[in-house]
Write a sequence for this structure.
C-alpha cells in the first residue's frame, strides 16, 4: 500500500528528472522502503552526511528510482544514536552501501553484514574520515586486517582466489571462487581497492570546478559523470542550457556509449577465444577515438561537459566527417554482428553462460545494461527523458535471456541505436551559445543529476556550501548494484568462464570504490 | 568462415610505424636495441594502483592493430615474475599500497618502473588524503613518467621507447 506521507510530506527535488524529497522518521523510513519495494522501485543510491555542525544530526538518504520519477527519502539521527533501520530486507543491494556508509561516517544500519567494505586497514576502526571533524589532510599507517571471507567446506570443495592484481590490464579487485570439480559453487567479491576518498576530496572543491573530479570517478563514464554533476548544479541554480550545448552533450554521451560497447564487443569475443573480434572492434573503437581527438581535441572527452554547457564547439567541417564515420560504423557493426551470430564456437560459449534470470535481476535490484539483458525494460533516456532526449525518442533495447549472449546482443542493439541518435543530433544541430556559467548557488541546497550512462544510471547528489563551496557530493556508479549480480550469474558455471562472464558485465571498480 | 576472411582482406593491415624520439626511426632498430638490452622482448606487467580506469583504456588501445606493440617486441605478461618493466597507473590508494609493493618486489632484477598518467606521475586531481598515498614514486622507485589525463597511446608508446633506449643500464 502506498502510504499518504509519501505524497503529503514531499517537497520537489531539484533535478534534471522529475522527483521529490520526503523527510522520514525511522518508522516512515522503513514504511517507505516497503511501499517502494511493492511499487517496483529500484534502490538507486544510499549515502550519509555529517550535519552535526548544523543540527547535531547525522543524515542518511536513500534515492529510489520509479519508472516515472525519483524519490529521495531522508532520515536524520541524533549524533548520540547514529543507527537507522536497514534496507536489506527489501533491497538486498543496500548491503554494501550500508557497510560503506559505516566505514566513512560511523553511522550504522540495524541489520545486515557488519564487515568493513571500503576500509581495508588503511585508517583506524574508530576513525570515520568523512566526518567534518576529521581533517582532509590526515593520513594513517596501514594496519592490515585479514578479511573474513565466508568459508565453504565439504568434500571436494577447493578455493580459487584471485586478485587484487589480475593477470590482464584491468582494475584491482579480489574474487574468491569455491569450486567443486570444475563448477563454481560460490563466488565472493571483495572490492574497495581503488577507494580514493572522492567524497572527502569533493569538499575541498569549488562548485564550478567539481565537474573535473566527477569526471574522474570512473574514466570510462567520464561524460556521464560530468553531465550528472553539472545537471545537479544547474538544477540548483535553475540554469537553462542552450539547445546547442545540450545537443553536443548528448552527442558526447552517445559517442561514449558507442566507444565502450565497441570495446566490450571485441573483448568479450576475445575472452571466448575469438581474437578476430578483438582486432576488428578495437580498430573501430580506435577510429572513433581518433575522430574524437580530431573534432573535440581529445580522445575520451574528459571535461568536455562543464557547468552551464560544453567546453568546445563542433565545427561545420567536422559534421560530414562524423556522418561518414557513422555510416562506416553501421556497415561494420552489421557485418560483424552477422559474423558473431553465425560463429558456432562463439555462440557455444555465449549461450547460457552466466545466466541471470529476470526474477533474480528483480530481486537483486539490477540496473542499467545488465538489467535490460535480463528483461527489466528500463532506460532513463526512454522512461524519464531529460533534454534533449525528450526530442530524440530513443528506442529501448531489451532481452530476456540474461546470459552472456543477451548482453552481447544488447550491446549490438544499443550501438546501432546510438549511431542513429548521433546522426539525428548532427542532422538537427541547433545554433546557440556553448556555455553560460551558472550563478553561484546559495548554501544548503540539494541537487541531483541523473544520467543514463553506457553501464546504467549514473547519479550525482550535490549539496552546496557557503561561498560557492561544495558541502557534500555523492557520486554513484551503477556498478554498486551490478557487482553482486556476478556472484549469482557465475553459480554452476565452470571457472574458466569467469573472465567471460565478468567481461560481459564489464563493471567499474573505480566507480564503485569511490 | 568466408565472411571472416573477406573482412580481414578488406580491412587489411592497419599497423603504423612506431614513434621515435630520435632520428633512427626504424622499427627494426628499436627491436635490435630491445634485444641488446633485454636479450629478448620487453615484458611489461601492469598494475592499477588506484586509477579512475581512464589510463587503462589507453593502455588497452596500445594492443589494438594500429599501434602494433607486439610487432616492436613489447608485450604484456600475466606475472611480475616474467616482467622487466612495471607499468603503474593511478595515485596509489592505501588499499593498493601493499599489493603494489609486493608486485614490485616479485619482479626479478634488473627492473624498471614507468608511471603512467598525471595521477601516477604527480598525484593528479586526487591529492593525498586518508585513502590516497600520492604518486607512485612515494611508494616504489620510478624510472620515468608519462604525463596526461589520460595520456594517449602514442604518449605511452613514446614513454616505453624512451625508457628502453635511455635506461640501458640497470640501477645499482
Amino acid at each position: 500500500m502506498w502510504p499518504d506521507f509519501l505524497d503529503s510530506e514531499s517537497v520537489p527535488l531539484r533535478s534534471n528528472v522529475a522527483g521529490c524529497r520526503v523527510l522520514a522518521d525511522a518508522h516512515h523510513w522503513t514504511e517507505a522502503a516497503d511501499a517502494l519495494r511493492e511499487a517496483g522501485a529500484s534502490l538507486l543510491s544510499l549515502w550519509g552526511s555529517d550535519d552535526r555542525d548544523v543540527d547535531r544530526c547525522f543524515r542518511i538518504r536513500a534515492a529510489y528510482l520509479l519508472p516515472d520519477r525519483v524519490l529521495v527519502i531522508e532520515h536524520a539521527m541524533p549524533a548520540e544514536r547514529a543507527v537507522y533501520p536497514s534496507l536489506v530486507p527489501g533491497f538486498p543491494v543496500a548491503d554494501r552501501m550500508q557497510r560503506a556508509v559505516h566505514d566513512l561516517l560511523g553511522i550504522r544500519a540495524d541489520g545486515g553484514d557488519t564487515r568493513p567494505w571500503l576500509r581495508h586497514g588503511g585508517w583506524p576502526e574508530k576513525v570515520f574520515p568523512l566526518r567534518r571533524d576529521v581533517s582532509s589532510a590526515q593520513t594513517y599507517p596501514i594496519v592490515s586486517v585479514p578479511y573474513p571471507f565466508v568459508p565453504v567446506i565439504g568434500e571436494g570443495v577447493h578455493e580459487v582466489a584471485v586478485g587484487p592484481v589480475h593477470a590482464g590490464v584491468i582494475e584491482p579487485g579480489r574474487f574468491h571462487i569455491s569450486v567443486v570439480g570444475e563448477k563454481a559453487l560460490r563466488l565472493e567479491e571483495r572490492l574497495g581497492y581503488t577507494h580514493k576518498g572522492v567524497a572527502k576530496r569533493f569538499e575541498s572543491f569549488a562548485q564550478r570546478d567539481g565537474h573535473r573530479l566527477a569526471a574522474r570517478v570512473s574514466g570510462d563514464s567520464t561524460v556521464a559523470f560530468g553531465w550528472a554533476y553539472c545537471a545537479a548544479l544547474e538544477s540548483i541554480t535553475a540554469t537553462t542550457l542552450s539547445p546547442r550545448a545540450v545537443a553536443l552533450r548528448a552527442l558526447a554521451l552517445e559517442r561514449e556509449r558507442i566507444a565502450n560497447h565497441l570495446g566490450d564487443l571485441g573483448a568479450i569475443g576475445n575472452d571466448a577465444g575469438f581474437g578476430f573480434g578483438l582486432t576488428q572492434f578495437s580498430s573501430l573503437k580506435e577510429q572513433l577515438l581518433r575522430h574524437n581527438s580530431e573534432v573535440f581535441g581529445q580522445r575520451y572527452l574528459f571535461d568536455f561537459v562543464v557547468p552551464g554547457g560544453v567546453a568546445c564547439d563542433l565545427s561545420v567541417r567536422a559534421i560530414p566527417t562524423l556522418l561518414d564515420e557513422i555510416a562506416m560504423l553501421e556497415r561494420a557493426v552489421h557485418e560483424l554482428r552477422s559474423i558473431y551470430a553465425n560463429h558456432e564456437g562463439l555462440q557455444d560459449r555465449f549461450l547460457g553462460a552466466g545466466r541471470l534470470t529476470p526474477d533474480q535481476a528483480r530481486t537483486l535490484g539490477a540496473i542499467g545494461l545488465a538489467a535490460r539483458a535480463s528483461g527489466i525494460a528500463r532506460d532513463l533516456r526512454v522512461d524519464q527523458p531529460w533534454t534533449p532526449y525528450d526530442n530524440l525518442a530513443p528506442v529501448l533495447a531489451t532481452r530476456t535471456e540474461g546470459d552472456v549472449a543477451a548482453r552481447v546482443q544488447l550491446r549490438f542493439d544499443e550501438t546501432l541505436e546510438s549511431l542513429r541518435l548521433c546522426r539525428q543530433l548532427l542532422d538537427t544541430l541547433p545554433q546557440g551559445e556553448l556555455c553560460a556559467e551558472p550563478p553561484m548557488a546559495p548554501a544548503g541546497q540539494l541537487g541531483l543529476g541523473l544520467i543514463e550512462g553506457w553501464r546504467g544510471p549514473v547519479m550525482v547528489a550535490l549539496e552546496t556550501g557557503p561561498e560557492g563551496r561544495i558541502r557534500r557530493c555523492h557520486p554513484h556508479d551503477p556498478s554498486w548494484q551490478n557487482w553482486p549480480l556476478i556472484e549469482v550469474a557465475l553459480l554452476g558455471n565452470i571457472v574458466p568462464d569467469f573472465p567471460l562472464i565478468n567481461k560481459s558485465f564489464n563493471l567499474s571498480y573505480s566507480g564503485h570504490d569511490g | 568462415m568466408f565472411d571472416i576472411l573477406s573482412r580481414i582482406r578488406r580491412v587489411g593491415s592497419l599497423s603504423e610505424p612506431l614513434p621515435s624520439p630520435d632520428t633512427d626511426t626504424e622499427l627494426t632498430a628499436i627491436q635490435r636495441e630491445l634485444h641488446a638490452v633485454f636479450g629478448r622482448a620487453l615484458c611489461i606487467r601492469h598494475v592499477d594502483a588506484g586509477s579512475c580506469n581512464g589510463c587503462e583504456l589507453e593502455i588497452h588501445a596500445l594492443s589494438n592493430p594500429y599501434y602494433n606493440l607486439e610487432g616492436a617486441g613489447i608485450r604484456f605478461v600475466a606475472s611480475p615474475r616474467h616482467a622487466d618493466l612495471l607499468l603503474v597507473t593511478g595515485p596509489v590508494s592505501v588499499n593498493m599500497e601493499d599489493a603494489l609493493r609486493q608486485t614490485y618486489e616479485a619482479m626479478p632484477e634488473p627492473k624498471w618502473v614507468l608511471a603512467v598518467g598525471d595521477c601516477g606521475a604527480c598525484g593528479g586531481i586526487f591529492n593525498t588524503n586518508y585513502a590516497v598515498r600520492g604518486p607512485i614514486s612515494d611508494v616504489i622507485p620510478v624510472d620515468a613518467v608519462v604525463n596526461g589525463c589520460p595520456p594517449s597511446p602514442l604518449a605511452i608508446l613514446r614513454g616505453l621507447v624512451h625508457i628502453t633506449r635511455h635506461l640501458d643500464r640497470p640501477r645499482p
Q: What stands out?
A: Chain B is about 35% helix and 15% strand. Residues 41-166 of chain B form a domain with the Rossmann fold fold (CATH 3.40.50.12280). Chain B has one domain: 41-166. The helical segments of chain B are 2-11, 27-38, 54-61, 94-106, 118-122, 153-166.
